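Predict the assembly for these two chains.
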Amino acid sequence: MMSVSGESSPSLDPGALRISLEQTPHAPALARAAISGFSDGLEIAPARLATLLLLVSEVVTNAVIHSQATAEAEILFAARVTDGGALRVEVTDAGEGFTPRARDPNHPGGGYGLYLVEQEALCWGVDRPGGTRVWFELATHAG
Amino acid sequence: MVRPTEFKIAHRATEAGVTVKIVGELDLSTGPVLAESIERLRRDVKALTLDLSDLSFMDSTGLRLLIELDQRAKAEAWKLVLIRPKHETAAAVLTATGADSALPFEDAPQG
């Protein structure tokens, strides 16, 4: 059994996706391309794939916009299939973080990102191992 | 490694005003491009049609733009028409938020 040192317990599962993205407006598109490639090998219903691309785009967009980290800091984007067969996505930014809310009524049209995650994901959450990590799990089959 | 997001904007004047057709992915990187184009094209016209039928992806950055346009159209008394996206990956954000019925959407014309 190999032991892994490091603060963020990187997944070494070859079936997992793990990339870092520069914190630029292109990050959401790059994350969508990556998750799209990753999910090619999985049997995902088309409607689920549309939801997956949307949620990935929302969470990565939030990481780009809300993080107070310097521009050089990267966003860590990871995905894997859970034992339960759901797709789990984690987006970690290195910033001080913000306190994500599902929706802020003071900013009309804003804050839809986590509203969508809350509505569509099986479960989701936020934790902060040295940054802000937002994760969600999505069923891969329609229903 | 940078994959430029596919995005094209085409516009044509019509009797009623201007039609803007957007193709590609509408997100954080391309939203500002569209907002700027619309700002320029919308001047002095009484109607704007935004054709999203061939849009391949949209997230809430795009949705926010549509909501702001709708609010401005109402406040400034001009007509906004949105043509529904055909692709599920562009329509998902609209159905999930209810924006498909709250905003002035029309189906793409046949043919």
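The interface with chain A takes residues 2-5, 25, 27-29, 32, 57, 59-61, 63-64, 67-68, 88-89, 91-93, 96-97 of chain B (CB under 8 Å). Chain B has a mean pLDDT of 92.
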